[in-house]
User: Which sequence fits this backbone?
């Protein structure tokens, strides 16, 4: 992947509601992986979910799921039953592809959760 | 499994000084990545190692930046003749194998401030 666009600098969701964070990317690779990472304030980056580009089935991880549209190069994250602890910066990060594994990060979306 | 550790956590230095950061990956993780994160941005890839071999270093920001992983375990990132523009968070991540799609586990980062 060469560029990653997260078009929502900030999002807000009510506790227990559902929110979707968008991400589009540009790549010429056919074999790559996509990740969503969460970075709470002053804390380290934590993996939320991982998707293999060759798999058509969307990844899910408890309350987190993705909508992966390979042809459209879109990789959105849905958070269901939002909790206060979900408040953080969320980064979409496809990897470089091929043999290189480095991640290409978007600018992030800051998610606020209202009680 | 104690996670990825980085030292120091914070570093304040004067312009023109050299600084060195250390990263200890998760035990037996073969790949080690360095990223830089400036305020309000997603992390930016700098370099990576597979065991002791540095496989990509063209993304290092200038020839003032260098990295080593001499025994395939811990790694150091050195910045010579620091500039105010080097102020950022420096992140280290490791992954378990030599495969590009493996999940990267991040350390807490070293925050550098150049005065």
Assistant:
């Amino acid at each position: 992947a060469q560029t990653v666009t997260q078009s929502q600098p900030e999002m807000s969701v009510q506790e227990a509601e559902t929110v979707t964070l968008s991400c589009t990317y540009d790549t010429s690779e056919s074999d790559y992986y996509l990740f969503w990472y969460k970075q709470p304030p002053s804390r380290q980056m934590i993996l939320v979910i991982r998707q293999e580009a060759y798999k058509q089935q969307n990844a899910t991880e408890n309350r987190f799921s993705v909508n992966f549209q390979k042809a459209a190069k879109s990789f959105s994250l849905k958070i269901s039953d939002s909790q206060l602890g979900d408040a953080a910066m969320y980064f979409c990060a496809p990897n470089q592809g091929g043999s290189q594994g480095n991640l290409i990060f978007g600018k992030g979306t800051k998610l606020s959760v209202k009680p | 499994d104690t996670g990825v550790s980085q030292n120091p956590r914070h570093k304040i230095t004067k312009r023109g000084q050299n600084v060195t950061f250390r990263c200890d990956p998760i035990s037996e993780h073969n790949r080690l990545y360095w990223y830089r994160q400036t305020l309000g941005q997603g992390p930016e890839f700098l370099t990576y190692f597979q065991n002791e071999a540095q496989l990509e270093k063209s993304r290092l920001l200038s020839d003032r930046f260098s990295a080593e992983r001499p025994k395939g375990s811990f790694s150091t990132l050195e910045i010579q003749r620091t500039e105010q523009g080097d102020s950022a968070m420096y992140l280290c991540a490791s992954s378990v194998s030599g495969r590009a799609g493996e999940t990267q586990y991040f350390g807490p980062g070293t925050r550098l401030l150049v005065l």
